[in-house]
Amino acid sequence: MSQWSQVQQLEIKFLEQVDQFYDDNFPMEIRHLLAQWIESQDWEAAANNEAMAMILLQNLIIQVDDQLDRVSQEKNLLLIHNLKRVRKLLQGKYHGNPMHIAVIISNCLREERRILAAASMPVQGPLEKSLQNSVVSERQRNVEHKVSAIKNSAQMTDQDVKYLEDLQEEFDFRYKTIQSLEQNDKNSALIKQEMLALQAMLNTLDYKRKEVLSKIGRVIHEIDMLMSNMLTEELLDWKRRQQIACIGGPLHGGLDQLQNCFTLLAESLFQVRRQLEKLDELLTRLTYDGDPIPVQRPQLLEKVNFLLYNLFRNSFVVERQPCMPTHPQRPMVLKTLIQFTVKLRLLIKLPELNYQIRVKATIDKNVSTVSNRRFVLCGTHVKAMNMDESANGSLSVEFRHLQPKEMKTSAGSKGNEGPHMVTEELHSISFETQVCLYGLTINLETSSLPVVMISNVSQLPNAWASIIWYNLSTNDPQNLSFFNNPPAATLSQLLEVLSWQFSSYVGRGLNSEQLNMLAEKLTGQQVSYNDYQLSWAKFCKEHLPGKSFTFWIWLEAILDLIKKHILPLWIDGYVMGFVSKEKERILLKDKTPGTFLLRFSESNLGGITFTWVDQLENGDVTFHSVEPYNKGRLAALPFADILRDYKVIMADNVPENPLKYLYPDIPKDKAFGKHYSCQPNEVSKPSDGGGKGYVPSVFIPVSKILNDSTEPHSPSDLLPMSPSVYAVLREHLSPTAIETAVS
């Protein structure tokens, strides 16, 4: 079943998450129509290879053309229209930057895998639960309801101001009419009656002015209360959700809803501001003793301007944190002289601001708070915000060509640029701009979450560990001295984040048994998840007992192994992986001989091994574990083929494959058959195969087990032996002779 078919079978809450990351940059229609073709391409490799990306883009357009021909014959007008639009988008937007579409599709496929993994996990962790509680959802609905009510109140006040203006114009006309009469006419009874009517009208005007000012004051108060409480909390919650998403957690939605709220509030405040300007205009034409306008209007206008300043300042956010396109799953880790991207958004979307706001990017603006190392940003660091580049029309700007460069020290040489750059130093990318609108000038500033600067990709694992620990442990967006005294983390939350590393990077998270093993490895004992506090040093700095590497480096090597060599097997759930030697023997001891399981090596970085159970002639159970396979050996022979072709030579026995059933009782070929690079080789005579007289050869992994050992002795795991040669050996040599030749 294709990945897209699995996605379509998800529950609605997960489908809503999928819907969030498909937009005009990569329309869902194309994902649906070209599902199998898209999944069969290596978009991740193309994201780092422009030539490959250009070929894939051209092939994608060809695929769209084929679909367009098909739907044209079916006369599906709507689909024809959408496909033509998509084709125009692909040719126009990505022709000059084909790697960008590769990055987008790669990210979409990865997020699908993460959501599929999350859907398969039976229990939510504490962090994910905290992000999805009903109180937050209820507050979101309340904010939207209150913003709508405020907008309606401001519009109704507009009608009151219009009525007041009409009433004053009528009063002004009648008053000037009386003033134009001769003195004798003014003493008539009719005129005196008219003067009484004018006095009553003036009283009404005074009442309406007070009423309008009171309504404006209530609207301002409602906006103030909403901004001070619920809207601020909503924005902080979104920023926290963004932090969690950056380290592999659930996607953070809600920014479009926040934009809608911010925009409506800004429109309401500008509307109130115009109402106050209209009252000032009415004041210049008519005033009187006790007039409320000159007393109340300045205070109300000052409050409106204050709220607008705060609203604009809070609306300037980093929509997408700094990230190198070459490492999309490792945001906030930046390598010197390598481009990174970052996206800013102004949540107040007003047409008047399109292309009017220029944003400047800087690094370590407050240098006194950072390390001794100094950086500058190379590339285009000033750009205008606009509504044209974003698929949803938001007012945003994306910097795509920024590069951090370390400045030379006063001695004329670079600071710590080199292999020993400290991965616990935090830096900050800052952004500033100025908004000039309707007579207001507002300076805006915001910053990215702390980033780690590296000079070599070998520093990436430890740098990413720093990013994980920071964003797991604190809500503070700018604590650059965090690692001077890093706090401990709750084990339950850390384990949840570790599971996210697997779900986001390799498409399948960890179950409770796998997490238990990691917990014991971290703590050296069985502990309560909820109570145990783990130190930063234990996680990333102290070596594991008896090992030359830390827990995190061990785990990162396993992630790399899965990603590059056993990804399909991991996604299918056939790699138990995290199980101790003691636990694996408990699991296997009562199983049918030939039952095996796959686990990651605890002593070799990035190694995977398999252990099977066997039964001796006296009925005793014995276990065999093969020497771990690392990425070098797996690059020569796919792991599924190793499991298929693996042979063991025991004394006086012919070589045979001891692996029969994947734990608990799945026939080996049923589990791994679809992952074999080809069907099992039929044994053939030497004369049957090979071009130009050569015998075709394959690698057959072979181990020899001595009588007094339960472990394969230094297995020759990649012994080159062709099927035909193996057949000849079987026909003409004894098992003892074969064993001697192998050894």
From TrEMBL:
PROSITE patterns: SH2
GO MF term set: DNA binding; DNA-binding transcription factor activity, RNA polymerase II-specific
Keyword vocabulary terms for this entry: Acetylation, Activator, ADP-ribosylation, Coiled coil, Cytoplasm, DNA-binding, Isopeptide bond, Methylation, Nucleus, Phosphoprotein, SH2 domain, Transcription, Transcription regulation, Ubl conjugation
Subcellular location: Cytoplasm; Nucleus
Primary subcellular site in the record, as a coarse category: cytoplasm
One biological process term in Gene Ontology: negative regulation of developmental process
Similarity field: Belongs to the transcription factor STAT family.
Protein name: Signal transducer and activator of transcription
Annotated source species: Cisticola juncidis
Gene (name only): Stat4
